[in-house]
Amino acid sequence: MDRLRCLLVVSVLCMAAVAVSGVRKLECSEHRDQECEISNFTIVESMDLSEYEFPDHPHLSFGTYPHSDDSTYVVTITKELADILQATEKLEIQNVSLQTMVLWNNLRILDASHNSFYELVVEPGQNYQLRELNLSYNRFQSIDFVLALPSLRTIDLRHNYLESLDMSLFSMATELWKINLANNRIQSIATDGTMYLPRLSNLLLNDNLLSVLDASEWHFNMLQELNLARNRLRYLSMCEVNHSFPHLQTVYLDENRWDCAHLNATIRQLHALSIKPMRHYDQDDEERCGRNVEGICCY
């Protein structure tokens, strides 16, 4: 009996040893010093993550971006994986075909650019600490998740699929100093009531489809740069500029559909306020359209 009991114990221990040895420990690449880079790895939604041991590292990177890496695919970051990565404060996850991701509280910097990303999942009542968010070159059509991110300081949404925008989504992020919404398909921007962003310095709206910019409810007292290039604007309200952007220094106006009379009056007022009307692009508007005010095309 004692011999049988001993054999059973040995058998159980051997099984446990096999189970432990079956766990794949993911190693950090040796060629990056300050961050843990994981490559040659695939994560899909149905995957059993219990088979893997992830590094406990504050700065994690999936893939080898900006270098080409066809060996790494992280299609989703599930709630299970988000819980595993709680120690990670900075995550770089570019160019790995990411589509969906569950956010975790301790993450402070996220660069998920150059993916097929369309859904960032946030949970109500959580104390998210995210400060820097780069979602450029993705497929977002909605950014309602921003309401849950009051600690944001910068957000980059260039080259997504936004068609309309409610600026009130940013109202809780009072530490924001830069919003980049360039190269979307934004036709209209709404605001639900008066909105204050006391630290906002840069607002980039270039390369969209705006025909009207209603800034009457905005109070961006520290805004210094406003980029409106390559839209469909015909008129800019200087009353709103004075009211909403009292410290504006530079505004980019080129490649719109400005009415020449209004543009001429607007530029005179901008000069009077020591605001520089600038061109964002190098094309010669004067040769292209025939009529211009200080090199900015008008009709």
From TrEMBL:
Signal peptide: 1-22
Protein name: Lumican
Entry keyword set: Leucine-rich repeat, Repeat, Signal
PROSITE patterns: LRR (PS51450)
Repeat is among the record's keywords: yes
Pfam families: LRR_1 (PF00560), LRR_8 (PF13855)
Keyword check for Signal: yes
InterPro entries: Leu-rich_rpt (IPR001611), LRR_dom_sf (IPR032675)
UniProt cross-references to SUPFAM superfamilies, sorted A to Z: L domain-like (SSF52058)
